[in-house]
Amino acid sequence: MVSKGKMKLTWILWFILWPAILWLSYNYYYVSMEDQIIDILLFALFMCIVAWFPLTINDNPVFFVNGISIAVFLTFGLFVEIILTQIAIVTVLAKTRVGKKDNYRYPLNMIMFSLVSVIGAGVFVQLGGNHQTIFTQSEEQVWAIFGYAITIFIANQFFNKLIDKAFYKRKVKIFDEGLRWEVISSLLIIPVGFVLFVLYSEIGRAGIFYLGIPFVFISVILMLLYSYKEINRYLEKTGEIGHQLTNRMELSSVYNVFINEISDLLPIDYAYIYIVDDNKLKLEQFYDLENNTEASFSSLKRNEAFSGKVWATGKSLLYKRASDWATVKSRKIPSDTESVLSQAVEYGEDIIGVVTIESKQKKAFEKLHFQIMDILTNYLGVAVENAKNYELTKSQSERDGLTQLYNFRYMENLLEDYCDNLIENNSNENFSLLLLDIDHFKKVNDIYGHEAGNEILCQIAESLKSFIGERGVIARYGGEEFIVFLPYSGLSESTQIAENIRSLIADSPFTVHKHIINNTGPLNVSITTSIGISVFPIHCETPSELIRHADRAMYIGAKRKGRNRVAAYEDLKSS
């Protein structure tokens, strides 16, 4: 984003420098305009036509008027060349839809190209160039023309890179795609421009038409060639994105890849990924190019904003300016949005989500972008469903079916990975493991029935999750036993946590509904637990020892000593 200070400074410099450059070039450099106004206007017309077919590379328009401007400079002098080049600049900026917000680009480019013209003319003179004797076609004159053309090319590249670096704060590559296309076009255009000058010198006005029209066709051909290349680039990149999406098995990774890739591929300021969740669109991912902030909302209703409208109608949206979507009113649309592209994410016959991208620029999205997004949202739909199925399968394999806690296999893997990571990083961190067993649980099942026992197991699981929260990980060890993994917890802290758990369960009776006691409603059942503690690496060297020592502490230190108590492996070692 260009600051207002830079914009004002650009206009001030233009008011000072541009008139001064025109005055100096008119009064102190060769000027030839007598009886040639019509020819000059014809040259201006062809330059404008050529400028109407630019290539936009890295936000910079590349247009092919250099050949004609060389002929103009050699024929009419610096003043006329500057004027006609400025007209071509205004034409190309108008064609690339530079609006009020970016109107500083007009004076900025006019100053740059004026300086380029002056520098080129200076090199021409220094190399012995002379407009009065140029028709002799001496070797010195040819070298002067060649030096002028090369200087124009180099100076143009230099100022472009300088402006990108100092003015726009962009990362600059010397040998980028813009340079390659400038080189290709210059090798083709500059020789034709010199021929245009020679032909005009020999046959007059007719020479403008003989080579001016081919110039236009060359520009159109180069533009079409670049467009074809861009289409191929988009399609190749789209295929790569699709491949990346299909390789991601986690939803968060799918969303991250999609947002990161399309923000590099398309001119986006804001991007949203919504997934259908019950009767709303849930915002899963948000992208803000400049501020990198979080969205101020988490969901949309049907027909709300762009995405809600697409969800409700099933029809994609493509708006090129804010006036096109003025009737779509929502505080959830950024106020500086101009262009909008919103498409449904489908899987089979169903709409499972919506992707919306927005730009602050008018006409930022074209039909090609629409087609590319259509392909990408299809890839996204498949990737989202694959990731959902994978996560469901993974969850089912890692979770206990009754309590929905992690199962013992998951806990074993977690402890193994955690220990390996500590050893690999030479960490001295302690962590603890609690093994909890319900006292006399067989009697509970015998008296109240197994369904009542299952209710108690589920309630204990909920109590543990609520109490432990983010401090640890809980798993069902099997039967009536639970494991609590406490990272960053030493013996003292884990003992206090275990004691709090024991008190919480012992002091809060559990209500069961599916019992086998006849003619009674819900019953309150009091439960106690015995808890064993072991600490890594104080009490063990491997995860399997950690579990085994916690089990031993629970049975010998807690169960055998009366139950409803907490015991650490440390106590067994000292007894």
TrEMBL record:
Residues 429-571 form the GGDEF domain. The keyword Transmembrane applies. Keywords: Membrane, Transmembrane, Transmembrane helix. The keyword Thylakoid does not apply. The chain crosses the membrane at residues 12-30, 37-57, 63-94, 106-129, 141-159, 179-201, 207-228. PANTHER family: DIGUANYLATE CYCLASE DGCM-RELATED, REGULATORY COMPONENTS OF SENSORY TRANSDUCTION SYSTEM. This is Diguanylate cyclase with GAF sensor. It comes from Virgibacillus subterraneus.
